[in-house]
Write a sequence for this structure.
């Protein structure tokens, strides 16, 4: 059998291989650079870590297993909880609407009362009187807001996230109480001071009784403190009941029942003293005493002290239940 090369009369050509370089002696590698000595490796820095400014103490990393967080460890405190609660309370629409309605009721009703009265109406009553009628309705707005500050988180389930971010539950309740009380006190006091300024400007003359310093303080700071404590009591009740409708209904009963029930208790001779005492510490009577509408009512600071004691007891109960109960 003949191959194609033999048929054509040619000799087979073997395949060519690439030429290989001849081996070099060891001296040929003498011109290469010597290996560098190993250097100390820098410590591992997680990605995204921002180094602290010069002079600041270095913060340790938060490590979980083999994972190292790029966020430095920082111990939280009450100021962080207050900042968080302030962000939440100012971001909710109910806060703005409720406080706006309260301020509108206090200032609007006070202005209408001042405009519809004459100078002769203030011969025996202080010019701070128009703020009393608006405070009667405005306190219901503060009561509602005090309940919603904490009960709304239970309704939406946001309270789980809050307690996960801040496991110290007493710190959360303290921050809520401080933020709400400050906001309610400032808003109520400024609204009442504005009504006092408007009424004093619209009614002046020799027949008008100028309010004393005690009357001015009671009609502004005193009433603002009373309404704010009533809202703080609502927050404590909302923390204990954890239900918006139930807590609001309970607080409306606390505010309105002492004003209505004494009229029925006084019909019975044996219960007349109880009716008189209940009426003395009811919300309308306490506000009227703080405005010093009548000298026989007193200054109103005793009613304010009783409300402060009841609020403190309710807050203690709220703290105890908050630590014992599950979310």
């Amino acid at each position: 059998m003949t191959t194609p090369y033999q048929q054509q009369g040619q000799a087979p050509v073997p395949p060519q291989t690439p030429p290989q370089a001849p081996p070099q002696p060891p001296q040929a590698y003498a011109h290469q650079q010597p290996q560098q000595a190993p250097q100390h490796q820098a410590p591992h820095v997680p990605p995204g870590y921002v180094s602290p400014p010069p002079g600041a103490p270095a913060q340790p990393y938060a490590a979980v297993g083999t994972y190292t967080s790029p966020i430095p460890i920082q111990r939280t405190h009450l100021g962080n909880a207050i900042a968080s609660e302030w962000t939440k309370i100012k971001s909710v629409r109910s806060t703005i609407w409720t406080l706006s309605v309260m301020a509108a009721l206090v200032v609007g009703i006070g202005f209408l009362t001042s405009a519809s009265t004459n100078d002769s109406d203030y011969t025996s009553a202080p010019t701070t009187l128009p703020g009393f009628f608006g405070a009667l309705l405005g306190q219901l707005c503060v009561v509602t807001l005090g309940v919603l500050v904490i009960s709304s988180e239970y309704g939406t389930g946001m309270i789980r996230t809050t307690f996960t971010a801040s496991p110290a539950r007493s710190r959360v309740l303290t921050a809520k109480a401080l933020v709400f009380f400050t906001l309610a006190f400032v808003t109520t006091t400024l609204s009442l001071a504005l009504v006092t300024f408007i009424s004093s400007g619209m009614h002046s003359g020799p027949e008008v009784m100028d309010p004393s310093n005690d009357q001015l303080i009671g009609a502004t700071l005193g009433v603002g403190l009373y309404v704010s404590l009533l809202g703080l009591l609502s927050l404590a009740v909302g923390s204990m009941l954890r239900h918006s409708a139930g807590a609001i209904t309970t607080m409306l009963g606390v505010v309105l029942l002492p004003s209505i029930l004494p009229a029925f208790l006084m019909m019975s001779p044996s219960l007349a003293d109880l009716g008189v005492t209940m009426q003395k510490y009811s919300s309308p009577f306490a506000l009227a005493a703080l405005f010093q509408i009548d000298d026989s009512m007193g200054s109103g600071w005793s009613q304010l002290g009783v409300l402060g004691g009841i609020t403190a007891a309710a807050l203690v109960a709220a703290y105890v239940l908050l630590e014992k109960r599950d979310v």
